[in-house]
Amino acid sequence: EERRGGRRRGEEERGGGRRRGGEVGGEERRRGGEKKRGGVEGMIEIENPNRIVQKSKKVTQIEMDEPKTLSRREREELEKQKAKERYMKMHLAGKTDQAKADLARLAIVRKQREDAAKKKEEEKKRAAAGKAAK
Fold this sequence. Notes:
It is a single chain. By secondary structure, the protein is mainly alpha-helical. The protein has a domain at 70-133. It is built from 5 helices and 2 strands; from the N terminus they run ββααααα. The protein has helices at residues 9-14, 27-30, 59-65, 72-93, 97-133; strands spanning 3-4, 7-8. The chain has a two-stranded antiparallel ribbon. A hairpin with a 2-residue loop joins strand 1 and strand 2 (7-8). Residues 1-47, 113-134 are annotated as: Disordered. Residues 48-125 form the Casein kinase substrate phosphoprotein PP28 domain.
């Protein structure tokens, strides 16, 4: 077969031969997933003092170990909710300006409805008196 760039033509098309890192097709998988260390790495054990090893924790440990600290957005959201609750309590008690205005408007509407009911009642009496007179 014709050779091109150190490989036979058939291997190049099929993707055969040596792969990256010097391993031959699937050697790493056959060894149980253990990576092959190359060069100095395999001979010397290096301990990096700056490397932080992540240790997995259980959910119960995380909640117990550390007091919960809120982010700025979470803290602002809580403050906003508490302020809204305080305002609603004061509003229901009638201590806010808006509540006072609402109560005044409600009193005016009640007065108008009472007056309208009185007029209607007087008209019914007049109509009944007019029919009785005939």
